[in-house]
Specification:
The structure holds two protein chains of two kinds. By secondary structure, chain A is an alpha/beta fold. Chain A is 42% helix and 23% strand. Chain A has a five-stranded mixed sheet, with helices on both faces. A two-stranded parallel ribbon of chain A has the order 3-5. In chain A, strand 1 and strand 2 form a beta hairpin. In chain A, helix 1 runs parallel beside helix 2. The longest helix of chain A has 16 residues. Chain A is globular and about 30 Å long. The two termini of chain A are 25 Å apart. In chain B, helix 1 runs antiparallel to helix 2 and helix 2 runs antiparallel to helix 4. By secondary structure, chain B is of the alpha+beta class. A five-stranded antiparallel sheet of chain B has the order 1-2-3-5-4. Classes of the chains: A alpha/beta, B alpha+beta. Chains A and B meet through helix 2 and helix 3 of A and helix 2 and helix 4 of B.
């Protein structure tokens, strides 16, 4: 994963793995929690590389969303149609903020525009 | 039950082994449309992960056997291993996805078996002689 900071409180985390599964989720969660500890109040997760997500990956995303709390936002960027279908399977496509381009994602993370 | 297995895969009880399932199903591509192949992969990954974590407590060295059976109307995936996870009652419970009332109510665990029920057209669990046999049916052409 690679992380950019468009401002002091927003981190854009770019996944490089193609799968967000039980094998991957533990390490990703650890890195995202470290990013929050480093000052990120909101996160943009660039999922361009991700083609497969399972319930462990989704559970990890939910845990990060809860950790950010009411004051923060978790935005999923570049979500592949198959990943979106998996989120829809458990109706969590309605819960995450989802953006198709980075400027919109950062705007959502800043609270500039509604999801 | 459909006819004899068209393909068979033996996995070791490790999470990394779940990553072989997609390639195995790709090898059966002639028999599986992409949409069904994706449903089968996700359901199989969920159930093999469940077996590794709950039946074997993450311990390697146990076989998890997958078999694909074909008929004109459906594809049947059979997953078999020693141990008794998941409990049959959990997998067979009716389930309908409902959006939670608040973020803090969102589940972080337990979605896998719910997803399997949503992905399959029928599923059955048999426990016998301390073994588990999961039978998942995917009907051809009824949905994307």
């Amino acid at each position: 994963m690679r992380t950019d900071w468009p401002d002091a409180h927003i981190a854009v985390v770019r996944f490089t793995a193609s799968r967000l599964d039980a094998l991957e989720a533990v390490e990703v969660r650890r890195e995202l929690l470290a990013t929050i500890e480093a000052g990120a109040g909101s996160l943009v997760l660039d999922m361009q590389s991700v083609t497969f997500v399972d319930s462990s990956g989704i559970g990890m995303l939910v845990s990060i969303l809860k950790r950010l709390g009411m004051a923060g936002t978790l935005v999923l960027l570049h979500v592949n149609e198959h990943v979106m279908a998996t989120l829809a399977l458990v109706q969590l496509d309605r819960v995450f903020a989802i953006a198709q381009d980075e400027a919109s994602a950062i705007g959502l993370a800043r609270g500039d525009i509604g999801p | 039950m459909s006819g004899p297995p068209a393909a068979r895969l033996v996995l070791d009880s490790q999470l990394a082994e779940t990553r072989r399932i997609g390639a195995w199903l790709d090898d059966c591509a002639d028999a599986t449309a992409d949409a069904i192949r994706r449903r089968m992969e996700l359901a199989a990954v969920e159930l093999v992960t469940n077996a590794v974590v709950h039946a074997f407590a993450g311990e390697a060295g146990h076989a998890v056997v997958l078999e694909l059976r074909l008929s004109e109307a459906s594809l049947t995936l059979v997953i078999e291993y020693a141990g008794t996870a998941p409990p049959a009652s959990t997998l067979l419970e009716p389930w309908e996805a409902k959006p939670p009332d608040s973020v803090q109510d969102l589940p972080e665990h337990g979605m896998g078996l719910q997803m399997v029920r949503a992905l399959t057209d029928a599923c059955a669990v048999e426990h016998a002689a301390d073994r588990t046999r999961l039978v998942l049916r995917f009907d051809v052409g009824d949905r994307g």
